[in-house]
Hints:
By secondary structure, the chain is of the alpha/beta class. It has one domain: Alpha-Beta Barrel (TIM Barrel). 52% of the residues lie in helices and 9% in strands. The protein contains 16 helices and seven strands. It has helices spanning 2-12, 23-28, 33-47, 64-69, 71-87, 108-129, 152-166, 201-215, 235-238, 248-256, 262-275, 286-293, 297-300, 302-306, 310-330, 337-343, and strands at 18-22, 54-61, 92-96, 137-141, 175-178, 220-222, 243-244. Strand 3, helix 6 (108-129) and strand 4 (137-141) form a beta-alpha-beta unit.
Amino acid sequence: MARAVFRSALKGNVGAFIFEIARSEIGYTAQRPAEYAACVLAAAIREGFKGPVFLQGDHFQVNRSKHASEPEKELEAMRSLIREAVDAGFFNIDIDASTIVDLEKKSLPEQQEKNCRVTAEMTRFIRSIQPVGVVISVGGEIGEVGKRNSTVEDLRAFASGYLGLLGSDVKGISKISVQTGTTHGGVVLPDGSIADVEIDFETLEKLSRVAREEYGMSGAVQHGASTLPEEAFGHFPRVGAVEVHLATGFQNIIYDSPYFPGELSNRIHRHLLEKYGAERKPQETDQQFIYSTRKKAFGDFKRELWSLPDDRLRKITTELEARFSLLFEKLNVVGTRDLVKRFIG
C-alpha cells in the first residue's frame, strides 16, 4: 500500500501527505511504530521517492475508563507510546484527550478542563524528548469523532484553557481535530453498505479560520473522511481544512477487490464471527459486524496478507494507486513537492 502511495505521489509531484497510525491501530494491526516506519521508508526507497516522509502518531488517545480509575498509570502509558513513536521517527503526534471531555459539566471551560490539562502535559513531555533541531508537530482534539459536532465556542474554551496551562515558554499545538459529522469507518447499514453522511463544511471553515487567526494554528483537521462521496473531497481545501484523514476507504478497496482471494476472505469472515462474536451489538447483521470488525484481520492474518500472490497484489495495489491519485487531485496537493522542500530541511 505504501508503495502505491509513493507511486501516486511521484506521478503528481506530491509532497504534502502523511502516513499515520493510531494507538488503537497499532494494537489490532500488530504493528509497532518502528515496524510501521521501516515499512513506509522501505517503500519510499523502493519507488525512488526523494524528499521528507512524514510519519504521524494519530489519535494517541486517552482511555476514558482507565483514566477515571488509574489516571497516572494511563498517562504513563501515553508517555511510553509517545517516546516509542518519536524514537521511531514519528515527528507528528496527535494527542487525543477528547475522550475525557465531560459534557455533563455546565460551562464549556469546565467541560474541556481535563482535555486541556492532559494535552498541555503531553505537549510539554513531547517538547522534552524531541530530537535536537526538530520541532515536532503536535495536534490536539476538541470533539470525539462520531459524537456531537464541535463549535467555535468549544474551540475557544479549549484553546484558552490549554494555552493558560501550557505557559508562554513552550511551543503549543499546530492543529486541532474537530467533529463535523463523520464517524470512523462510516455508518454501516444492515446490508453492509455505508450510509450517506453530511459534513458541516460551514462549521469546519469557521473552526479553521478561528484556529489560524486567533490562536496561530494551521487550522482544523477532519477525521473519518475516507468513506465520503467523491464530490465531497474538493470542499476540504476550499474551507481551509489543514489535514484530512483517510483509512477505511483503502481497507475497503483491498477487502472488496475482485482480486482479493475468495478463500482467504471466507476464512477471515468465519474467524471474525468466532473470535469477536461477543462484541456484536444486538440486531447487528453479519454484514454490519464483519464490516466494522474486519480491520482486526490485518493483525490476525498478518502473515497471509503479507503473502498474497504477486499477481493479485499487483492488481489490488493498482486499484489503490488510482484512488490515491484521485484524492491527491481532489485535496489540491498535486504539485506540492517544491512547497514542502521550501519549508522542510
